[in-house]
Design goal:
Blueprint (H helix, E strand, L loop, with lengths): L4 E6 L4 H11 L5 E4 L8 H9 L3 E4 L8 H13 L7 H16 L8 E7 L3 H13 L2 E6 L11 H7 L2 E4 L2 H10 L8 E3 L20 E6 L8 H14 L4 E6 L5 H10 L6 E5 L3 H10 L2 E4 L13 H8 L4 E4 L14 E4 L4 H12 L2 H18 L2 H11 L6
Parallel strand pairs: 1-2, 1-4, 2-3, 4-5, 5-6, 6-7, 8-9, 8-11, 9-10, 11-12, 12-13
């Protein structure tokens, strides 16, 4: 009897997603379908997957007109017209129907179950596969796909075997905001990061204090408030603090103008998008990690992966009291929670951590303990695969 296969469907890759794929590959062989092209940034990771025996397919589409499937999809669309309301829902629905229609169905042969990332196109395509080919699916949802009126969400949860959330906050949120939801199907399962070898506490910085920020440079990350706070620190304590900013995005030009306007060229370093050893070096050199996330109109962070990475290196963290962030930045335990859009509170939190050796060392120790307990990628990946029956306990 031929071995039943497992399938992982992804629309767009992110570094943390690739890390989960590689972690999965150490426990089980499976197939991956990428619905979009893969950036060159992930070339080395793809080689790792290939060497681990993982079969992957990038945009495996073959246009073959199937009149029966076309009619079924048309009837489904008519029955579910409400899912087209709103720009985001409209785009997701049309994309998903088109991708499903032209997907090479040979890749579904002998597939036992599917896992998809995000309650968007990948999960919607998986729900179509379930409907028309009777293949079970699971999916993991995140902040990005629930903090607006996602008209697919309840349907995706109810038709799945289980769905996974990485935070308690998001589970409470969807229970309160989505109707007719079979919430018993939602399981809390942390994401995680690869824990560094030889983890150890951070030493109290006795010279210049390096503040670190790494993330996409987008509105919800709150970078303007960190810059304003750093300027206050610099004016109050000249030459005491340095700020390293890693990442790329729409706020890059604003950051460069702020640095130039306030003569901070020697105190703020722009590192760009980093990975591998450069990323490791960034965390090793960071004394305090700050992520001043904010709520935007239709989005906010869930539990940012960069906070998982920071605590895995034993770094005291400062972040905002929104969404699931208090589940990883625990106030007065491994850092400080602050109000969003409040540069002065960022300043005060940095002062508290950087001016008390005992507090600094304790926060560092607690960051490591929390990372080991809750955010170990290998342990959490194995647990997810077990819950999906992809591996035995």
């Amino acid at each position: 009897m031929k071995h039943k296969q497992k399938l992982y469907i992804i629309k767009s890759l992110a570094p943390w997603m690739m890390e989960e794929l590689i972690a999965f590959s150490h426990f089980q062989k499976f197939k991956i379908i990428f619905l979009r092209n893969i950036p060159e940034f992930y070339r080395n990771d793809l080689e790792v997957l290939k060497n681990n025996g993982i079969e992957y397919h990038v945009k495996p589409f073959k246009f073959k007109f199937d009149i029966k499937l076309f009619i079924l999809l048309k009837l489904f669309a008519i029955k579910n017209l409400n899912k087209l309301f709103g720009k985001q829902n409209f785009i997701w629905t049309l994309n998903s129907m088109y991708w499903f229609f032209i997907l090479d169905k040979n890749l579904l042969k002998n597939v036992q179950s599917i896992h998809a990332q995000f309650a968007s196109q990948a999960a919607i395509v998986s729900s179509f596969i379930h409907k028309f080919y009777k293949i079970d699916y699971y999916f993991t949802f995140h902040a990005h796909d629930i903090y607006f009126n996602n008209r697919w969400f309840s349907n995706l949860v109810n038709n799945s075997v289980n769905s996974f959330s990485i935070s308690e906050f998001n589970i409470r949120y969807v229970k309160n905001h989505f109707k007719n939801l079979k919430s018993e199907k939602i399981k809390r399962l942390r994401l995680g990061v690869s824990l560094p070898e030889n983890q150890k506490n951070k030493k109290f910085p006795d010279k210049k204090i390096k503040i670190g920020f790494i993330s996409n440079l987008e509105e919800k990350k709150g970078i303007p408030y960190l810059l304003e706070a750093f300027l206050k620190l610099h004016l109050k304590y000249p030459d005491k603090y340095l700020l390293n900013i890693a990442g790329d995005g729409v706020f890059m030009q604003m950051i460069k103008k702020f640095i130039q306007k306030n003569n901070l060229k020697n105190y703020v370093n722009i590192l760009g998008k980093i990975r591998d050893q450069k990323k490791i070096d960034f965390y090793i050199q960071t004394d305090i990690f700050v992520l001043p996330s904010i709520r935007t109109k239709d989005d906010m962070d869930g539990i940012p992966v960069v906070l998982m990475e920071a605590i895995a290196y034993g770094i005291p963290v400062i972040s905002t009291n929104i969404s699931g962030i208090p589940e990883i930045c625990i106030n007065e335990y491994n850092g400080f929670l602050i109000d969003e859009k409040n540069p002065q509170q960022i300043v005060e939190a940095i002062e508290k951590i950087s001016q008390s050796e005992s507090l600094y060392v304790q926060c560092s120790k607690n960051s490591l303990l929390l990372a080991q307990k809750e955010y170990d990628l290998v342990k959490n990946s194995k647990q997810k695969m077990s819950m999906m029956n992809w591996i035995e306990n």
